[in-house]
Amino acid sequence: MFLLSFFSTAQTGSTDFWNQVRYGGNLGLSFGTGYTAVQLAPQAVYQVNPIVGVGLGLNGSYVNRNFDRNNGFASDNLDYSSTILGGSIIGIVQPIPEIQLSTDFEYLNVNRDFEDPMFRDDNYWVPALFLGAGYATGPVVFGARYDILYNEGRSIYRNGIQPFVRVLF
Q1: 139-162 confidence digits (pLDDT tens)
Q2: Does this model's pTM top 0.85?
Q3: The organism sits in which domain of life (predicted)?
Q4: 104 has which bridge partners?
């Protein structure tokens, strides 16, 4: 509600609201032995001033995990695929042109399908609160973010630290 109120207020000001909105998002790729994750997260960020931006995003992800029974690299033998959909609220602070600090709150619906009938397929919601930092060069930011709500048993991410590439035009 706060963001919607803020956006409504911003639209009535003397500055054209849509000229202050930047579009883009994140692309996430994670590969490992028996593990693949692909994430696409479009975002729209309202640039409050040259330093601060706030916005909203969507998140779509696909994860596939296969236990390598020959090499035994995974910690267990849970083979599954997962589709994840949700949204996020984004805050960006860029104190100098080369450094971007961010916070992202995501709320995601996770749908996991296990290959082994011994395990029950799962569908649940999971929150994530990321604090991030990155190097900005033009509209592109390369960085890492940490999920302070990370839960190994429920999170969609392999660990609490995630590299990211954010592009906003």
Answers
A1: 999 999 999 999 998 887 879 999
A2: no
A3: Bacteria
A4: 90, 130
